[in-house]
Design brief:
The complex is a heterodimer. In chain A, α1 crosses α7. Chain A has twelve helices and ten strands. In chain A, α2 links the parallel β1 and β2. Helix content of chain A is 38%, strand content 16%. Chain A is of the alpha/beta class. Helices cover 39% and strands 19% of the residues of chain B. In chain B, α13 links the parallel β17 and β18. In chain B, α1 crosses α2. The chains are: A alpha/beta, B alpha/beta. Chains A and B meet through β1, β2, α3 and α5 of A and β4, α3, α5 and β10 of B.
Chain lengths: 292, 404
């Protein structure tokens, strides 16, 4: 089977970026232009003169994918070529929540007809697992390491979907590579809705999170099943659907225990208290989004 | 060829420099304009916005971005899909674009940008010098400098022609001194649409982001290939040298106006002293020369229109028979105490058989007025170099010692 995102790239075994990119292109089809910021996805798919992309693809810089996407959309409109072509920016959490947020804010406020896909693996993986604004509470990264005085990252994840909802985005959805059908359905919907739409895809990174390369999907599912990563859609600022957890609900330990980045919570004195705090975060999500 | 201004007074309008440039952009038929307001560039983008509001620029999208960083970033995308692209900025805005400047030229996207030259902060200052664009000299952008409104207006069309040439494919800055040119009203001829259509071909790039022929833009280059990309950028700069001359000559044929190609000369033929300069100060220098010539001083001017690519051969040809050269700079390389035109001219003469004393004088920073008397003082210093050699190689010519 041939994909618009081809095999043979330089991603790690079990790479989350590759899976999400493939699913997004399965949803988008060949009539799209992809804009990627600097990051793993860019580096592993385009070592000159090779490319994994079967659709037009452009990388400019780390912090400007949404701005470049704005320009692609405007250029296509000016040239009378926009009608069917979908413009998709697709990059990591650092490029989205941190360094690129100004450009995203501008593009969404201006109302460009683009879809922005954040592949959220919760740290700067391409540079060696440094913390980002998407790194979860108590995760140990190379710049928020657990140590004798620290349980790792001190802050919860930045709520990017809420920030873009505040921009009046007509469609926002969270999804997970653990649920590819749901992901593809939401990307299709995002592409069909006129205006700036946002897909936030949770994407476990085998290298950065520290788990076996065969477990990417399993871990992604556990994030959803614990309530730590709720799946929902927002239309014009209102939540219009959620993926219920129901009987599948698992304690957060099940998810955290499988990952090296949370190992200190199970080995270090006081870890039990920290686990309770994380369980509170999950429980709050379950109530807030009505996941039960 | 000397400056030719075949100006038909019936065709002349009194307009502001910014309006003249905005009008030139309009008749060049851009597809995407993306800009963020910053003094003294604002009037250009306001005029373009009004043209858009009045439906005067067909097949064009204007993106009101949230920063200069996005102004140029958006044009990366627009240019890559095959759109003719324009922006304008200055000073802090241009500095904020620094990272994208490299990116645009490395991706060989022929975006044209007007720079309304302004000083950089700190201390914050909105008035003219050329530190902003000179500080971007290594980013791979063509840099042209205009002397007056008519040239700034005409240079806009020339910049598109040069940048989009298939042997060049580099972005270009058309630089005009902030306020001194951007906010001044002068009688001039606005570019006629029919003549621009004759002069400027439609932009038809060989490679675009096209769903029917999917290409990858902006791939990463490892040590095996990176050098060759950079080499090809330099090669494109080399190619631009004759193209800048051609663009000026073609412009003369179509519009009847000419300001020099890479450089222009004024009273240099028998000149012992040659002043070199870029931008609006050229007008003041010409007036000064007229006065000094009347007194028998053999002084001339070499106006540098193209700072990137740096026209080494044209400069050498113009100055080789002089006895002393003074490079006048509205910028300084801190730590070297030299302006860029001085440093580069001096360096270009080393390893040649032109044995020429060259001195540098920095003036007009942060909008400080440049009276004829300052230029006369510089000419006096140059005359002293002829008599007794160089005493001070490079310094500010208009420093207020009493304030230090």
């Amino acid at each position: 089977m041939s994909f618009l995102f081809e095999a043979g790239h330089r991603g790690c075994a079990g790479c989350c970026d590759a899976m999400v990119a493939k699913f997004v292109l399965m949803a988008a089809g060949e009539d799209c232009i992809i804009i990627s910021p600097t990051g793993c996805l860019e580096v592993m798919t385009t070592p000159y003169p090779e490319s994994s992309w079967g659709v037009p693809w452009i990388h400019s810089l780390f912090e400007n994918a949404a701005s470049v996407a704005s320009g692609v959309e405007a250029g296509l409109k000016a040239l009378g070529k926009f009608e069917k072509t979908k413009v998709i920016a697709m990059g990591g959490d650092g490029a989205t929540l941190d360094i690129g947020i100004r450009g995203i804010s501008g593009a969404f406020e201006r109302g460009h007809d683009i879809t922005y896909v954040c592949i959220d693996n919760e740290a700067y993986m391409n540079t060696g697992v440094q913390r980002s604004g998407a790194t979860p509470f108590d995760a140990s990264t190379t710049t928020s390491p657990a140590g004798s005085e620290s349980f790792g990252n001190q802050r919860p994840k930045k709520d990017m979907p809420a920030i873009l909802a505040a921009h009046g985005a007509p469609y926002i959805a969270t999804c997970s590579l653990g649920y590819p059908k749901d992901l593809i359905k939401k990307v299709k919907k995002a592409l069909d809705v006129e205006g700036p739409t946002y897909i936030h895809a949770h994407a476990p990174c085998t290298t950065g999170w520290g788990f076996d390369t065969s477990k990417t999907v399993e871990i992604a599912k556990l994030a959803v099943q614990t309530g730590l990563w709720p799946l929902y859609e927002m239309e014009d600022g209102e939540i219009t659907s959620v993926k219920k957890i129901g009987k599948q609900k698992k304690p957060v330990e099940d998810y955290l225990r499988m990952q090296r980045r949370f190992k200190h919570l199970f080995t270090k004195e006081g870890g039990d208290e920290e686990l309770k705090k994380i369980q509170v975060l999950a429980d709050k999500n379950i109530v807030k989004f009505g996941l039960e | 060829m000397a400056v030719i201004r075949d100006l038909n007074k019936d065709k002349m309008d009194v307009v502001e420099g910014s309006y003249a440039v905005a009008h030139s952009v309009k008749v060049c038929k851009p597809n995407v304009i993306s800009a963020y307001p910053i003094t003294p560039q604002t009037h250009i983008v306001e005029d373009l916005s009004q043209f858009m509001a009045d439906g005067e620029i067909p097949n064009c999208e204007y993106i009101n971005v949230e920063s200069e960083f996005s102004a140029l970033s958006a044009l990366v995308g627009s240019s890559a899909v095959g759109a003719r692209c324009y922006s304008a900025t200055t000073s802090q805005g241009l500095e904020l674009m620094h990272e994208i400047l490299f990116n645009v030229s490395g991706m060989r996207l022929p975006i044209v940008m007007t720079i309304a030259n302004r000083a950089v902060s700190a201390p914050i200052n909105i008035w003219n010098d050329q530190q902003d664009s000179i500080s971007q000299r290594d980013t791979g952008w063509i840099q042209l400098y205009a002397e007056d409104l008519q040239e700034a207006s005409d240079m806009t069309a020339q910049a598109f022609k040069i940048a989009e040439d298939k042997d060049v494919m580099l972005p270009a800055m058309a630089c005009m001194d902030g306020f001194i040119l951007s906010h001044v009203y002068e009688p001039m001829v606005l570019l006629e649409q029919d003549l621009v259509d004759e002069y400027l071909p439609t932009y038809a790039p060989e490679y675009t982001l096209d769903t029917k022929n999917p290409l990858t833009f902006g791939a990463f280059a490892d040590p095996e290939i990176y050098t060759e990309f950079r080499y090809l950028q330099q090669k494109a700069m080399d190619n631009a040298l004759p193209k800048i001359e051609e663009a000026a000559n073609d412009f003369h044929k179509v519009f009847g106006r000419y300001y020099g190609g890479l450089v222009d000369e004024y009273e240099t033929e028998d000149a012992e002293i040659i002043l070199m300069a870029m931008g609006s100060v050229v007008g003041t220098i010409k007036d000064t020369i007229d006065g000094l010539r009347a007194k028998g001083v053999k002084v001339g001017l070499l106006k540098v229109r193209s700072f990137r690519p740096f026209p080494v051969e044209a400069i050498h040809n113009a100055i080789k028979n002089a006895k002393v050269v003074v490079a006048i700079d509205k910028n300084i390389s801190l730590g070297l105490n030299e302006g860029a035109l001085f440093t580069e001219t001096k360096a270009s003469l080393y390893n040649t058989n032109i044995d020429m004393p060259v001195i540098g004088r920095m003036i007009g920073h942060g909008g400080r007025d440049i009276p004829v008397s300052t230029i006369e003082k510089i000419v006096d210093e140059a005359a002293n170099v002829m008599k007794s050699g160089i005493s001070v190689e490079s310094q500010y010519a208009d420093l207020k010692e009493e304030l230090l």
